[in-house]
Automatic annotation (TrEMBL):
PANTHER family in the cross-refs: RING-CLEAVING DIOXYGENASE MHQE-RELATED
Biological source species: Halomicrobium zhouii
Domain VOC: start-end pairs: 9-134, 157-280
Name of the protein: Glyoxalase family protein
InterPro entries: Extradiol_RC_dioxygenase, Glyas_Bleomycin-R_OHBP_Dase, Glyas_Fos-R_dOase_dom, VOC_core
Source lineage: Archaea, Methanobacteriati, Methanobacteriota, Stenosarchaea group, Halobacteria
Length: 330
């Protein structure tokens, strides 16, 4: 049974990091994403929650992190998002390899996948990430942030996520229920050689692909792994429609939870990956002016009354600024 309102694609991806300052430095300065929200984990308010995105925090562009310093390193395995990929303009991968050399980023040789060139790398916590060179259309809804990386090379939101699953069958049926269409299969490269990678596509312009790979490789959650992947259900009505469709697959989605910048429903899909359905509003600029996104610690709802206590328990961090980095280099 197909969802009455298909998802346009990925909304955000949330991961687990270690040191918060190192996480900020890498995702803002090295990769050139904007810190659009500096907040806390609403289920663990003693931990930061950082949101990195395009210049306006558009849906389909935000990579978010819980920097749980006391957790150990994780291991990517079955039942996880194994790779998160971002779009960059065609012809930009030479720039990125040179930049990774300058910044000491651990990266692998390029691979070809479904006719596109992919540059795999890892963040400082070992999180597997990829840049995929694609043609960016003139009417693309993303707005690249250019404080550290020029527009000709900048990240334009998500390309895809890859799911590692012991038994892909039930999950592929779920993805089709969510409105994604199977568009191709090819032999995997750089993951589990010999296995087949199957690609599913949503109809939206950003974060539209989900790749599925079979593996029984064991994993564990920790630094350098994905906590969950969220899919766009733009309105409350879209979300409820999708929630009913998910329930029809024998899964148990939560009731809607207010996350301040969007409203969420969570469930574990058949293979164990934590999925979220997220509305597109109110958005990251609902409580801060667009020009000031990420400039202060935002404590949503009931947490504002505990500001003094919460701030006292969080590590001091400094947001990278291009002018400051240039001054330090002089």
């Amino acid at each position: 049974m197909a969802a009455s309102t298909p998802t346009p694609g990925i909304h955000h991806v949330t991961c687990i990091a270690g040191d918060p300052q190192r996480n900020l430095d890498f995702w803002v300065e090295t990769l050139g994403l904007r810190l659009v929200k500096r907040s806390i984990n609403q289920d663990d308010p003693g931990t930061y929650h950082f949101f990195f995105a395009d210049a306006e925090g558009n849906p389909g562009t935000s990579m978010t992190f819980f920097p749980w310093e006391n957790q150990s390193g994780g291991k990517v395995g079955s039942g996880q998002v194994s790779r998160t990929a971002f779009r960059v303009p065609e012809g930009s991968l030479d720039y990125w390899e040179a930049r990774f050399d300058d910044y000491g980023v651990d990266y692998d040789e390029r691979v070809e996948r479904f006719g596109e060139t992919v540059l795999p790398f890892r963040d400082p916590d070992g999180l597997p990430v990829e840049l995929v060179a694609v043609e960016i259309p003139e009417d693309d809804p993303t707005v690249p942030w250019t404080e550290f990386v020029p527009e000709d090379y900048a990240i334009h939101g998500f390309h895809s996520v890859t799911l590692w699953l012991a038994d892909p069958g039930p999950t592929t049926e779920l993805l089709q229920t969510m409105g994604l269409e199977e568009v191709g299969t090819e032999q995997a490269q750089g993951d589990t050689p010999g296995d087949e990678r199957t690609r599913f596509a949503a109809e939206g312009p950003v974060g539209r692909y989900v790749d599925v790979l079979p593996t029984i490789e064991g994993g564990r959650q920790g630094h350098g792994t994905v906590h969950h992947v969220a899919f766009q259900t733009p309105s409350d009505e879209d979300q409820e429609s999708m929630r009913k469709a998910v329930r029809s697959q024998g899964l148990s989605p939560t009731q809607q939870i207010d996350r301040h910048w969007f409203r969420s429903v969570y469930f574990r899909e058949h293979g164990g990956v934590l999925f979220e359905l997220a509305t597109n509003g109110p958005g990251y600029d609902s409580d801060e002016p667009l020009d000031d996104l990420g400039g202060r610690l935002v404590l949503p709802g009931k947490f504002e009354a505990r500001r003094e206590e919460i701030e006292a328990g969080l590590a001091d961090v400094t947001i990278p600024r291009a002018e400051q980095v240039e001054a330090d280099d002089d």
